[in-house]
Amino acid sequence: MAQLKVTLIHSVAHRLPKQRKIVAALGLNRVNSTVLQPDNEATRGALFQIAHLIKVEEVK
């Protein structure tokens, strides 16, 4: 199964509380922090809601 490399590129300061919770739930703490997440529907849905804050790359 493929994984997604998610990097936070914009700060979550002054963002909606829902967006802050999604970023925290993904395990992203600071700008330029990176995590690997499984490529599934739940993860894709969360990433879609914060797409303007992150950069996503597919890792095989």
Account of the protein in words:
This is Large ribosomal subunit protein uL30. One of its GO terms (cellular component) is ribosome. Belongs to the universal ribosomal protein uL30 family. With 60 residues, this protein is an alpha+beta fold. The chain has one domain: Ribosomal Protein L30, Chain: A, CATH 3.30.1390. The chain is 30% helix and 28% strand. It is built from two helices and three strands; from the N terminus they run βαβαβ. A three-stranded antiparallel beta sheet has the order 2-1-3, with no helix packed on it. The radius of gyration is 11 Å and the shape is globular. The termini are close together.
Task: Please give a handful of descriptors for the protein shown.
60 residues; alpha+beta; Ribosomal Protein L30, Chain: A; 30% helix; globular
